[in-house]
Design a protein that fits this description.
Layout: E1 7-8, E2 11-12, H1 17-26, H2 30-40, H3 45-77, H4 86-134, H5 138-143, H6 146-159, H7 161-188, H8 190-197, H9 200-235, H10 238-246, H11 250-273, H12 276-302, H13 310-351, E3 384-391, E4 404-411, E5 416-420, H14 427-433, E6 442-447, E7 450-451, H15 457-462, E8 464-467, H16 478-483, H17 491-500, H18 504-509, H19 527-541, E9 545-549, H20 557-571, E10 575-579, E11 591-596, E12 599-604, H21 606-612, H22 615-627
Helix pairs in contact: 1-9, 2-13, 3-4, 3-7, 3-13, 4-6, 4-7, 6-9, 6-13, 7-8, 7-13, 9-11, 9-13, 12-13, 17-19, 19-20, 21-22
The structure holds adenosine-5'-triphosphate (ATP).
The site of adenosine-5'-triphosphate has 12 residues, from helix 14.
Pfam family, one: ABC_membrane
Transmembrane segments: 48-68, 88-112, 178-206, 277-301
Keywords: ATP-binding, Membrane, Nucleotide-binding, Transmembrane, Transmembrane helix
């Protein structure tokens, strides 16, 4: 299970010290994180300035009503002259209502601005993360669970959404309201103001501590959420459910899910509860201040302090009560920021991953003219060369034998080259190195005469078409799957490619023809049908170089022959690398390379290799005996 960090039943278990240390180490980085989060808002400076102005104006306006309240009491309701002064009262009340309407309207505008900015920032972050992940090398995906990647994109980015949306307006609005209330309180009476704010620093210190705890829990919660997503992704996919059903593992899969879910519940409850004592304390403290103010006011009046009227006390306690929500709001935002710091750290961690394979600054496009060895450099066909290539998979153990060990060969432009050999010999690995899905540990792979490291990835890949062992189709129509190779392809082009791959007749026999949905990963099609659609897709791309990795493996012998003919004609004029177990499919190859234990152990044509009477001849004889058992 990913991560390893567990806070089970609200306690961090003994084996999780590493994760715990990691979480603790995240806390001091939050200040730097805040600067980086601030940077995300830079493109929206204009909107933020308008928001700030709206907040300032409405906050400034909010200072006025309490002062008017004082006048309502002292000049309107209970003037020293006695009796109620209605005209004064009406004017004061009218001004107050107008002010409330104005600040209500400004509030709506401000909400629109902040919702727009927050969601735009979050949307941009999500796309940036998605695009960055697209640039990561293949090995990143082979060593990371899909569900874990999905979780960063969905749960972590989604988790910071409310912070991005609410933070700006909340911080600005609440700060200004707190300052305004403080100013109003000072204007009303400075002695009472001191009483009201004397304990504030204690609350701020307590808040920081609570924030750190919450950040830690938030990190563990997201980690557990990503494990839950990974389990869902693994077990509720078509392949996963097939596996679970065929091994009767539904109960244990449910138990695994329930276990992680239990962990998630514990963490969510802890997250919901952390800080609640703190907020209860703040609430009690702020709510009791008016009572204390009455008491202190009594003392001050008894002590002969002038200037404290009934109006002052009512206005002061009104303002002070209005301090409660902005203060609580600020503390919540500070806590949310600290909590979301853990989520931002996870997002930035992915954004900071440097792709191991990327275009060099001086990378060039593929040009057949660079192919010095090509018989006719003007011809479009492309040659491929491996020059003393040694290759180890990134996650292989030190001291382990390399997967490809000093492999050298040259495939001339337009040649049909076959790679054969025992399972696990390294044939597919050879085909991965050509489009630079992986990079040689030493030696060079040359494409059209140039080291693939000097080429632009999109240019290189645009010249290569791969039909792999495992066919991947999207949950979309057959036509949409085919157009993935060539978005603007016409119906006639689709049909031509499908005819060539011997799948057109099958497709038109479906009630919805080319619009038939292939189902999740193509499960509504047979293995052979999927394979032929994949071949048609590559034919549509019309690449100069074809890589066929067991492309006919899922076909019965009749359709194998038909597709083989299609592939043979498709291979004409293209350089082709065909990886084959069934040697009958490659007897006509221009050159056959026999790979064993990561080395090229034999090379030549079918006839030459048979005459050589080595590994190939043995394999060929074995297969012939299997296909045509002695009667
Ligand atoms: P087959 O005919 O069975 O498809 P192959 O000759 O194509 O086999 P490769 O797929 O190239 O063999 O694998 C060569 C070796 O590299 C195998 O031992 C395999 O276990 C290992 N290998 C393949 N992919 C990875 C990977 N992503 N990380 C580590 N090792 C890998």
């Amino acid at each position: 299970m990913g991560g390893g960090g567990r806070v089970r039943g609200g306690r961090i278990s003994g084996g999780d010290f590493a994760r715990q240390r990691e979480l603790n180490a995240q806390a001091p980085k939050i200040d730097r994180l805040l600067a980086r989060i601030g940077g995300l808002f830079r493109p929206y400076r204009g909107k933020l300035v308008v928001t700030a102005m709206l907040v300032l104006v409405s906050a400034a306006l909010s200072v006025i009503p309490p002062l008017l309240t004082q006048r309502v009491f002292d000049d309107g309701l209970f003037p020293r002259s006695g009796g109620i002064r209605m005209p004064v009262l009406i004017t004061l009340v009218a001004v107050m209502v107008v002010l409330y309407i104005a600040s209500g309207l400004m509030g709506v505008w401000q909400t629109w601005l902040t919702a727009t900015v927050g969601n735009r920032v979050m949307g941009a972050l999500r796309v940036r993360l998605f695009s960055h992940l697209q640039s990561m090398e293949l090995s990143f995906f082979t060593r990371t669970k899909t569900g874990v990647i999905q979780s960063r994109l969905q749960n972590d980015v989604g988790g910071v959404a409310s912070v991005l949306t609410n933070t700006v307006s909340s911080v600005l609005g609440n700060t200004v309201q707190v300052i305004a209330a403080f100013v109003a309180m000072l204007l009303l009476n400075w002695q009472l103001t001191i009483v009201a704010v004397v304990l504030m620093p204690v609350l701020v210190i307590a808040q920081r501590r609570v924030g750190q705890v919450r950040a830690r829990i938030a990190g563990a919660t997201q980690e557990s959420l990503s494990d839950l997503t990974a389990i869902t992704q693994e077990t509720l996919s078509v392949s996963g459910i097939l596996l679970a059903k065929s091994f009767n593992r539904q109960k244990s899969e449910t138990a695994r899910y329930a276990d992680e879910n239990e962990n998630q519940i514990g963490l969510q409850v802890r997250q919901a509860m952390s800080g609640q004592w703190f907020f209860a304390m703040v609430q009690v403290f702020l709510s009791s201040i008016p009572a204390v103010v009455y008491l202190i006011a009594g003392w001050l009046i008894t002590g002969g302090t002038h200037g404290i009227t009934a109006g002052t006390i009512v206005a002061f306690t009104t303002v002070q009560a209005r301090l409660l929500f902005p203060l609580l709001g600020l503390m919540r935002v500070a806590l949310d920021l600290q909590t979301s710091g853990a989520l931002f750290a996870r997002i930035f961690e992915y954004l900071d991953l440097v792709p191991a394979i990327a275009d060099r600054a001086d990378a060039v496009s593929v040009s057949a003219a660079d192919d010095a060895c090509a018989p006719d450099p003007a011809a479009q066909a492309i040659g491929i060369e491996f020059d003393h290539v040694v290759f180890r998979y990134p996650d292989s153990k030190p001291g382990e034998r390399p997967t490809l060990d000093d492999v050298s060969f040259r495939i001339e432009p337009g040649q049909f080259a076959a790679f054969v050999g025992p399972s696990g010999a390294g044939k597919t690995t050879v085909s991965y190195l050509v489009p630079r899905f992986y990079e040689a540990s030493s030696g060079a792979v040359r494409f059209a005469g140039r080291d693939v490291r000097e080429l632009k990835a999109d240019s290189l890949v645009s010249h290569i078409g791969v039909v792999s062992q495992e066919t991947y189709l999207f949950h979309a129509s057959i036509a949409a799957n085919l157009r993935y190779a060539k978005p603007g392809a016409t119906d006639a082009e689709l049909e031509a490619a499908c005819r060539a791959a011997n799948i057109h007749e099958t497709i038109v026999s479906f009630p919805e023809g080319y619009e038939t949905l292939v189902g999740e990963r193509g499960y509504r099609l047979s293995g052979g049908e999927k394979q032929r659609i994949a071949i048609a897709r590559v034919l549509l791309k019309d690449p100069e170089v074809l890589v066929l990795d067991e492309a006919t493996s899922a076909l019965d012998s009749v359709s194998e022959r038909i597709v083989q003919q299609a592939l043979d004609s498709a291979a004409t004029g293209r350089t082709t690398i065909a990886i084959a177990h069934r040697l009958s499919t490659i007897v006509g190859a221009d050159v056959i390379f026999v790979i064993d234990g990561g080395r090229v152990v034999e090379r030549g044509t079918h006839a030459e290799l048979l005459a050589h009477d080595g590994v190939y001849a043995r394999l060929y004889t074995q297969q012939s005996e299997l296909t045509l058992p002695a009667s």
